Amino acid sequence: MTSPRPLRADAARNRELLLAAAADEFAERGLDASVADIARRAGIGKGTVFRHFATKDDLLAAIVVDRIAALNGVGERLLDAADPGAALLEFLTAAAHQRQQRDLSFLQEAGDLSEEVTSLRTRMFHTVHRLVDRAREHGAIRADVTGADVILLMCAPNHVVSYVPDAPPDLWRRYLAIIFDGLRPEGAHPLPQPPPDGYGERVQSSAR
Amino acid sequence: MTSPRPLRADAARNRELLLAAAADEFAERGLDASVADIARRAGIGKGTVFRHFATKDDLLAAIVVDRIAALNGVGERLLDAADPGAALLEFLTAAAHQRQQRDLSFLQEAGDLSEEVTSLRTRMFHTVHRLVDRAREHGAIRADVTGADVILLMCAPNHVVSYVPDAPPDLWRRYLAIIFDGLRPEGAHPLPQPPPDGYGERVQSSAR
Amino acid sequence: MTSPRPLRADAARNRELLLAAAADEFAERGLDASVADIARRAGIGKGTVFRHFATKDDLLAAIVVDRIAALNGVGERLLDAADPGAALLEFLTAAAHQRQQRDLSFLQEAGDLSEEVTSLRTRMFHTVHRLVDRAREHGAIRADVTGADVILLMCAPNHVVSYVPDAPPDLWRRYLAIIFDGLRPEGAHPLPQPPPDGYGERVQSSAR
Amino acid sequence: MTSPRPLRADAARNRELLLAAAADEFAERGLDASVADIARRAGIGKGTVFRHFATKDDLLAAIVVDRIAALNGVGERLLDAADPGAALLEFLTAAAHQRQQRDLSFLQEAGDLSEEVTSLRTRMFHTVHRLVDRAREHGAIRADVTGADVILLMCAPNHVVSYVPDAPPDLWRRYLAIIFDGLRPEGAHPLPQPPPDGYGERVQSSAR
DNA sequence: AATGAATGAGTATTCATTCAT
DNA sequence: AATGAATGAATACTCATTCAT
Question: How many CB atoms lie within 10 A of CB A208?
Answer without folding.
Answer: 6
